[in-house]
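Lab notebook page, bench 4
Experiment: in silico fold of construct C2
Operator: M.H.
Input chain length: 156 residues
Purpose: comparison with the prior construct
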Amino acid sequence: MTGHQVLVVGVGAARGVTAEEVRASVCAALAGAGLARAAVVALVTVQARVGEPGLVGGAALLGLPLSAHPAEELARVPVPHPSERVLAAVGTPGVAEAAALLGPVAGGAPGELVVPKTRGVGARPRCTVAIAAHSDSAWAGVARRVANEPSHQQTT
């Protein structure tokens, strides 16, 4: 990708994940890849988990909007690391990578995966994180609008 880029973090999570685990996992993935936290415009997950308190809280700790896509939409995105276990749990073979590639709103140009699915931090990680770069012109305005739409705002 060329030009100015923004980053979208896709997060897959098990029930019971904590806000701190989500925050720490996102920060660790960014740091491990040498990516700037300031470039991240959104966290994205599967619709079945968007109300999970740890995801909502993690997004709040990071100061980022949290948005979601239905499992059927994520399932249409080819991912390099599909999981039968995730497919059985939420209806798509990949959450973190597919969500990162799609970005906060479906229908735009897909991003470029810069950090593949990575296990979260901790002895027993309950989340996975993937990061995709998107063209600023394609997504920055969309992500800012998403952050201001009541349907995408989550409260703790």
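Observations: Helices lie at 19-33, 53-62, 71-75, 84-90, 96-102, 136-148. Residues 150-156 have pLDDT under 50 and may be disordered.
Next step: discuss at group meeting.
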